[in-house]
Amino acid sequence: MKKKLFWIAIGQFISACAYCQILNANNLVATGLGGLATVFNRLTGADVQLLLIIMALPIFVWAFFSYSKKQIFYAGFSYFMFTFYVGIVNRYLPQFLTDPIAAAISGGVVGGIAGGIIMKQRVANGPESIVALYLKEKKGLSIGSYYLIINTVVIFSSIIYGNMTMIVYSLICTFVQSVVTDKLIIGFEKYYNVNIMSDQYLEITQFIRNELNRGATFIQGMDTSNVKKKMLIQAVVNQQELIAIKEFVKSFHDDSFICASISNNIIGRGFDVE
């Protein structure tokens, strides 16, 4: 628990830096309640921290009677740390003032790193997450669809005080952030699920095990062209190992067949992706 709280606090500090010192400083709009707070702040001049609290409080009160206390605790702690850090970084850290495209990319990268750190803890990271879970359970709306809808509404609401150019840059920032978050969660290494149909299945399997130090699975199949039984080899390898397998299988100069597809969330011996 202490480890989760530590990484949530670190992630929300980074998130607050991206929100205040990059996005807000360069007139870009963040997503979620932070983006709504920015819109209301620029329209009314109200304090951002106060707006964050006012918008989140009804959701937490409602969620208190609808979800487990553990989930509410992590979501509340995460949101509290973000709100707390917003006041700190605004007061003590310098703003990163730059051109819009640089701000969009750097804000997306920094925000994506923060999101990846927090999401790897497998907890609700704020009131938006609680609403997303509710809509998924009760209404069948996917979490991805929910975030797409709310973030689009938030960003386009900034047209009230901004312009379409800054909205486009905000959308670029959101895209970069989602890519970076996914990479931190899934990993930067690409893995492939490889299926090989060949008469030389013993030699190929020996190559995979001895030369690549990977496991392989046999699945009995049948070639429909000549109604002949063949052994299908299945293995999971990285990009360099896939190239090695392709070159080895080509060396037989026969009708061996290879099909490879990208695999995510590989868990097990020899793989570090979670």
Automatic annotation (TrEMBL):
PROSITE patterns: PROKAR_LIPOPROTEIN (PS51257)
A Pfam match: YitT_membrane
Record-annotated DUF2179 domain positions: 214-268
Compartmental location: Cell membrane
Topology with respect to the bilayer: Multi-pass membrane protein
InterPro entries: DUF2179 (IPR019264), N-reg_PII/ATP_PRibTrfase_C (IPR015867), UPF0750_membrane (IPR051461), YitT (IPR003740)
Top-level taxon of the source organism: Bacteria
Residue spans crossing the bilayer: 44-65, 72-89, 101-119, 140-161, 167-188
Protein keywords: Cell membrane, Membrane, Transmembrane, Transmembrane helix
PANTHER family membership: UPF0750 MEMBRANE PROTEIN YITT (PTHR33545:SF5), UPF0750 MEMBRANE PROTEIN YITT-RELATED (PTHR33545)
Protein name: YitT family protein
Organism: Lacrimispora defluvii
